[in-house]
């Protein structure tokens, strides 16, 4: 393996999902729904296939989808963007992350991450040769330590990554936190990469796109995707929204990473994004119900459950069960209890920081959630 990837291990998601299958565990680890996406979206993709939409798409996206993304973003954030020059369709948000890092970061550039972080930020920053700076968010509230941020951010900082609602903690960045980040970025001429793939799973507060704060659009890349909102994670449809001077770098990277994204799936995605707000309300209602089952169950099983305002994840403290760390606990959980979760040390540069914390997802059907909860109550 190349030197720049030497520090990386097999992704924790692959590892835990394989172990879950091996041990017949209920999988509350990797964040993918075990139920299907909506029929009208699937039908639109099938129709596109039957109508012969099966060759390479335009590199920056099927025009219909670029427009649907811009229209949805206007409804959500109030920002008016040019679908042709500011929206780029990618193969999942994971490619959007890679294209953003590779297209806009130079070797040696300082980039700030909030830990715990989604593992692909770290991996793609290694690929780009960035110098990663970490700010740690700590339980129970995972609030932004503003003084740490002020001392780390400088004229040498090229970019800061914001992820709200936040994977794995479920934290939502408050307007005040985003405002402080924004003014520090303006002061120091720093870019913001804002991963908002869980924006439709904001349960307790309204989601805020940092791009919509005064003076921020011109320095922000907003990243999003279809998978979480429409329970179609396997379609791998994502996108970036950024002003033309930033979109240019992203598109250059995207052109040589994947060139273009699956054509018929983009037609399906466009249909999805045009749906009415009722869909999103129903989705949230469903997820709130599932969240209730999991959170109550985890408490009854003896965990300390940290508050989660958004995403389909919750973080718990497992230390009352007496295991050495998160990995040891998750191994026991999968082998002896029959439930898979994600040890969070994989989301920190220093694994010690995550040793007390484990992430569970509730993007599973009710039977799976209830069975997992029963197993934990009986066997932990
Ligand atoms: N985003 C998903 C999660 O956090 C996993 C995506 C992946 O497996 N790469 O569970």
From TrEMBL:
Keyword Phosphoprotein belongs to the record: no
SUPFAM superfamilies: PLP-dependent transferases
Any GO CC annotation of this UniProt entry: cytoplasm
Cofactor(s) needed for function: pyridoxal 5'-phosphate
Family matches, as Pfam families: Aminotran_1_2
InterPro entries: Aminotransferase_I/II_large, Kynurenine-oxoglutarate_AT, PyrdxlP-dep_Trfase, PyrdxlP-dep_Trfase_major, PyrdxlP-dep_Trfase_small
Keywords: Aminotransferase, Pyridoxal phosphate, Transferase
Domain Aminotransferase class I/classII large residue range list: 27-375
Recorded GO MF terms: kynurenine-oxoglutarate transaminase activity; pyridoxal phosphate binding
Domain of life: Eukaryota
Protein name, as recorded: Aminotransferase class I/classII large domain-containing protein
Source organism of the structure: Papaver somniferum (Opium poppy)
Classification of source organism: Eukaryota, Viridiplantae, Streptophyta, Embryophyta, Tracheophyta
């Amino acid at each position: 393996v190349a030197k720049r990837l030497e520090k990386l291990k097999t992704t924790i998601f692959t590892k835990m999902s394989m172990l879950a299958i091996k041990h017949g565990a209920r999988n509350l680890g990797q964040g993918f729904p075990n139920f299907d996406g909506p029929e009208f979206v699937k039908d639109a993709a099938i129709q596109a296939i039957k109508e012969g939409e099966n060759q390479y798409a335009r590199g920056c996206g099927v025009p219909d989808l670029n427009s649907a993304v811009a229209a949805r973003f206007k409804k959500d954030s109030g920002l008016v963007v040019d679908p042709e020059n500011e929206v780029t369709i990618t193969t999942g948000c994971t490619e959007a992350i890679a294209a953003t890092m590779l297209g806009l970061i130079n070797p040696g550039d300082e980039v700030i991450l909030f830990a715990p972080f989604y593992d692909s930020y770290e991996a793609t920053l290694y690929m780009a040769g960035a110098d990663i700076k970490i700010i740690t968010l700590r339980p129970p509230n995972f609030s932004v330590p503003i003084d740490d941020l002020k001392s780390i951010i400088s004229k040498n900082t090229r970019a800061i990554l914001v992820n709200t609602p936040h994977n794995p903690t479920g934290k939502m960045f408050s307007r005040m936190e985003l405002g402080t980040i924004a003014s520090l970025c303006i002061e120091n001429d720093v870019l913001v990469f804002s991963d908002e793939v869980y924006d439709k799973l904001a349960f307790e507060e309204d989601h805020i796109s940092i791009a919509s704060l005064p003076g921020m659009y011109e320095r922000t890349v907003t990243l999003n995707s279809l998978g979480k909102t429409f329970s179609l994670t396997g379609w791998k449809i994502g996108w970036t929204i950024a002003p033309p001077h930033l979109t240019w770098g992203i598109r250059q990277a995207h052109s040589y990473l994947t060139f273009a994204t699956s054509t018929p799936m983009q037609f399906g995605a466009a249909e999805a994004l045009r749906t009415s707000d009722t869909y999103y309300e129903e989705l949230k209602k469903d997820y709130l119900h599932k969240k209730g089952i999991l959170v109550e169950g985890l408490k009854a099983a003896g965990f300390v459950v940290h508050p989660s305002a958004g995403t389909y994840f919750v973080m718990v403290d497992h230390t009352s069960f007496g295991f050495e760390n998160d990995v040891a606990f998750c191994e026991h959980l999968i082998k002896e209890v029959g439930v898979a979760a994600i040890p969070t040390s994989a989301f920190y540069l220093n694994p010690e920081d995550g040793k007390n914390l484990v992430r569970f997802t509730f993007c599973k059907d009710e039977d799976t959630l209830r069975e997992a909860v029963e197993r934990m109550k009986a066997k932990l």
